[in-house]
Design brief:
Blueprint (H helix, E strand, L loop, with lengths): L3 E5 L11 E8 L2 H14 L3 E4 L5 E3 L3 E8 L4 E2 L8 E6 L4 H10 L2 E2 L20 E2 L2 E2 L4 E8 L5 E5 L18 E12 L10 H9 L8 H15 L8 E4 L5 E2 L1 H10 L5 E3 L5 E3 L1 H7 L6 E2 L2 E3 L6 E4 L5 H19 L8 E3 L4 E2 L2
Parallel strand pairs: 2-5, 3-5, 4-21
Antiparallel strand pairs: 1-2, 6-7, 7-13, 8-13, 9-10, 11-12, 11-13, 14-20, 15-17, 16-17, 18-19, 19-20, 21-22
Helix pairs in contact: 3-4
Bound molecules: flavin-adenine dinucleotide and NADP nicotinamide-adenine-dinucleotide phosphate.
The site of NADP nicotinamide-adenine-dinucleotide phosphate has 16 residues, from strand 9 and strand 14.
Length: about 350
């Protein structure tokens, strides 16, 4: 086991927070995970698994073992009907998978283009964007339970995938080691989300309804680049809060006060509020103080300088939460996962 000591995690998290890991290990195969588990048990040591580090906030030097997922084999078998059954190890880069699927002519993942991070993290919060979620294509996952050492398979339905949610948030010792996705060819593009169809037409000069996965991917990349900060230049973890869901009575009450309220009907009769809109109404967009701030194009994205620490980011998040609760009566839930010196905590 190639264990390193006192390793800076700055380049392993997209907020660029400079904390260290007491012990650090690259996980290149299942045997590395098994050995890491033995090490943690023998040394009574806390552990943390990092993928691309694009959905977490580190607030302190970590006193235990930080594992970087580096397993990245992928296979692309296609059957006679043009169905791809893609098996990708957890450490494969998500957007590389999307790009390759589009190159091979498979449809479905293009709306999920340019989401940072790894394949193994995709089911953890059931990544979603522009009207599509990974749930629509997931077939099964392989899991290693870091507490018990058990290795098992979960079907997609057993993963309990919901809106930015899954069973993995309730079983934090379960590590996804491999993901299986099923994609077809020639499926109609998913264009019902706001600007997507118009952007396809603008970029290609063609009507959007028959657009190829590649044209949709180009449009999504164009939209994202024009609106979302690239963590390489401006550290961030994407949306800092989940969109809150309210019931019809709450919605009626809020609309009287805020006639422009942005609320999308959900399948279960609830309404999803655009958290970014709520934050924007309270004047936070473009706010800056010290090393932290709110992005000037999207109020849901908190940004920081590369010398800020995790607590500064969380202090800003708490001020925004308090303000939104005061004016809208809605509690914003933090989306990224939060870690201190020994493990996960909640705000
Ligand atoms: P990490 O940040 O490394 O980990 C996140 C959590 O998952 C941690 O608790 C970690 O321990 C756990 N984890 C990671 N890998 C595994 C594994 N293999 N098994 C078990 N647990 C694991 N998200 C969206 O849903 N939609 C978007 O459109 C979107 N856009 C984004 C845009 C930007 C600019 C940024 C910075 C982030 C965005 N995100 C988006 C959030 C983030 O990219 C996703 O949640 C992504 O799936 C996180 O992957 P990761 O590998 O970076 O996970
Ligand atoms: P946006 O297009 O400005 O829309 C604002 C919000 O309204 C989004 O959060 C979205 O909910 C909701 N929305 C818009 N059109 C909708 C529709 N037709 N039906 C249902 N809901 C609709 O959002 P954005 O910030 O530019 O992000 C674009 C997409 O990328 C969104 O899907 C967003 O979730 C995703 N994204 C996610 C992250 C992350 O870290 N989680 C970061 C960046 C972008 P949904 O969020 O449920 O789609």
């Amino acid at each position: 086991m190639d264990l390193q000591q006192n390793v800076s995690l700055k380049s392993y998290n997209t907020l660029a927070i400079d904390v260290t890991a007491a012990h650090f290990l690259e996980i290149k195969c299942l045997n590395d995970l098994r050995a890491a588990r033995d090490f943690c048990q023998q040394n009574n040591c806390p552990w943390l698994l990092l993928g691309g580090g694009s959905n977490l906030v580190l607030t302190a030097n970590f006193d235990g073992l930080v594992m970087l997922m580096c397993m990245h084999q992928v296979t692309w078998p296609e059957d006679a009907e043009g169905l791809f059954t893609i098996s990708a190890e957890a450490g494969y880069e998500w957007d590389a998978l999307v790009s390759e699927s589009v190159r091979r002519g498979a449809s479905g993942l293009e709306n999920l283009s340019l989401i940072p991070g790894q394949v193994g993290a995709a089911p953890i919060q059931n990544i979603g964007a522009y009207g599509v979620e990974v749930k629509q294509f997931l077939d099964r996952v392989q899991v290693f339970d870091f507490d018990s050492g058990d290795e098992f398979e979960l079907s997609a339905s057993a993963c309990e995938l919901g809106y930015r949610d899954s069973i993995f948030k309730r079983h934090s010792s379960w590590i996804v080691t491999q993901v299986e996705l099923i994609l077809g060819r020639g499926k109609p593009p998913q264009l019902n989300y706001g600007v997507v169809a118009d952007t396809v037409t603008k970029l290609s000069g063609q009507p959007a309804n028959n657009a190829s996965p590649q044209l949709v991917r180009d449009a999504i990349i164009y939209i994202r680049r024009s609106k979302l900060p690239d963590p390489i230049h401006i550290p961030n973890v994407g949306s800092f809060f989940k969109n809150p869901v309210i019931n019809a009575i709450q919605k009626q009450k809020l609309i009287k006060q805020w006639p422009g309220l942005v609320a999308y009907p959900m399948a279960d009769n609830g309404f999803k509020l655009a958290a970014g809109w709520l934050i924007d109404q309270l004047g936070w967009k473009g706010f800056k103080q010290g090393g932290v701030g709110v992005h000037d194009q999207q109020a849901l994205v908190l940004i920081c300088s590369d010398t800020a620490n995790g607590w500064e980011v969380l202090a800003l998040a708490q001020r925004i939460q308090a303000d939104v609760e005061k004016y809208f009566g809605v509690k914003l839930e933090v989306e990224p996962r939060l870690f201190d010196n020994r493990g996960e905590f909640k705000l």
